[in-house]
Predict the structure of DUF262 domain-containing protein.
Amino acid sequence: MAKLSTLLDQIDSGTVLLPEFQRGYVWNRDQVRGLMRSVYLGHPVGGLLLWETSADVSVRGGVSGGGGTHLLLLDGQQRVTTLYGVIRGKPPAFFDGDERAFTGLYFNVETEVFEFYAPNRMSGDDTWVDVTELFSSGPVPFLSTFADRPEHAKVYLDRLNRLWQVTEKEFPQEEITGTERTVDEVVEIFNRVNSGGTKLSKGDLALAKLCAEWPDARTEMRANLDRWQQAGFSFSLDWLLRNATAVATGRALFNSLEYVSAEQFQPALEESVHHIGTFLDAASGRLGLDHDRVLMGRYAVPVVSRLLSLEGGEFRDAAHRDRVLFWYIHSALWGRFGGSTETYLQQDYDAVKRSGADGLITTLERARGGALEVYAHDFEGSTRGSRFYPLLYMLTRVTGARDFGSGLELKAESLGKLTSLQLHHIFPKGLLRESYERGQVNAIANFCFLTQNTNLEIGARAPEEYFAEAEERHPGVLASQWIPMDPDLWRVDRYLDFLEARRELLAQAARDFLAELRDGAAPAGGQAELRPLKLVSEPADDDPRAVQVRELIEELLRDGCAEPLTDAGISDPDTGRELAVAEAFWPEGLQPGQGRPVVLELDPDQADLQRLKELDYEVFTSPDALLGFVNRQHAEAAGGAAESQAESEPQDAATSSESAGSAGEDALLREFGAAMRNVYERARDEAGYPARHFLGMLADIGPLETARRLLNAPAVSDGFAELWERGRLDLTVEALALQKKFAPLFSDAELSKARTRLEQFGHPGAAAAG
């Protein structure tokens, strides 16, 4: 057994350390509150596993050694870090994460609830006690705070003393002893006992051994990732490690690094960083793929790294570079690495070794069943998740497409300070919603790229208005953007014919450019220097789905989840067939190595959900469903946080009514309940939207709590999105809350959020409401 106070002192003295192969701190505030509640109530919170060794082992912040014995924390990092951070008021020396997860925790001596500081609720209420201050000063100084309530003072002091005494709590502790144990053995033990926590990825396991010999390995790799991030490209540690593994071993599996020493790995990493830079120069300079959102097929890059390592570090000439880029584009378009990534990587590593770029092209042609071609029907995808969205951007940048307003070519070197482009719907969404389906409105063939000024000037005008003006000012500008020249196709009633005609033009442009790359017919040109490139500037999203996904991801990142791939193609590992283009995809689970792959797919009718489930993917078709799943996981991990939260929140209209404290407010609540039900019925009858989930919330938690939860959600609800698409934002909870008679039921923050959402999505009454 180990007393908590002793453990904290050992961390301060450097006796207890964290091995380098451990991940950083990933807990969220719900888990912190849940742990503190559990230790306060005396509930079991699990034991600790430490490795006692005097060997030199890579740890966070350096290497353990110096002749003494050290205890390396293998299991319990999140719990120990949380307790240290709350009690000491600062993170431990080995900390790697966001300390806001445990900063500002308060305890209510009346309700015995733990919450993070909220000034509107806690300011002036001395029943809320700063937990860190309590551990610093002890309970006695707080006694004077309750002097005016002697009937409660003893109870409050007992509760504070009980919380303060958690430092005397003893944790079950097991130790692995023996200096003869290797890091690999200890990592294996860690993964076995930590099956319920954050498992190490395959890349982490490979890095564990290397970090034992080269402590700065992770730091060096992260520095390169940060540099690319500043240039507009976001890559993961595992991805960089995969490139380095390709260079060092020519193998796809990370376990091939087992027999690679740090002395061998270090130059391989440096070489792979150079090769990645060479590829990014080519992708941005030759293909115009100059930022992260349009950089498709990133798992093809390790293959290019392997090829360059065998070719002396550089492309032999422009023609060689172009053939490699020809393969790269096709590998991305057809989802070469969307299934069994390591299997296909190894096939391509072997092909590179045998026959270079030609071998790669031949292997891909064989996998595709023939020549690599692009046809009109390949542009039938919709949304920016389509694999052909980056191809459209690439064609815009490299084939002389011109801006409708200025007539300038949309190449970075031609535009000067106007290099950022905006995505433009050729036929505005507002003209199409009443007559066409969502997938047709957001068809790739309805997209083009323009400068910001031109995009603003065109606004929501119909093509039959602005096309003729653009062509008159700048002859040939429409053809440069692959616009069909028949004016009849510019009418809304001929929209589907327009899409069909434009797809043919796009496919021909793609075939011509790809043929140039394959045959080496293009002018040689130079390779652009890697530089901080501007992200493509797209207009503020007026699509609630995009806002939902973005805000959901931000919320999950704050809660310690991994960053997902967005607009990600998912292929069948057996056939290579595309199963979905997911709005968000966590291929290794919400936390790397923990749980099943998670898919957020908002167009279920366009995906093979059954096959995804057969492949053991966790599939969600709405942000609300995914967020609910994550919250349930967090509540379970917190060991009572959900219960604690439930105690501090109103549960139904009756509870809210009691707190309101007047007959007038009771009447207002009843009227609001009737209005909420009326909103449901009108949405069903007038807009054709049966909000069954909304109806269930009304029954479960009451009208007022339903409204509050929807208003305080991190993203607009599914119902809001559905009603927006039907042009009926007047039927949303946001609009109802802003009615003058109901506004007193809500906080200023809730009303502000409601008003902002309605303004953002163009509801005309938002500015005047409330």
Notes: The first strand starts at residue 2 and ends at 3.
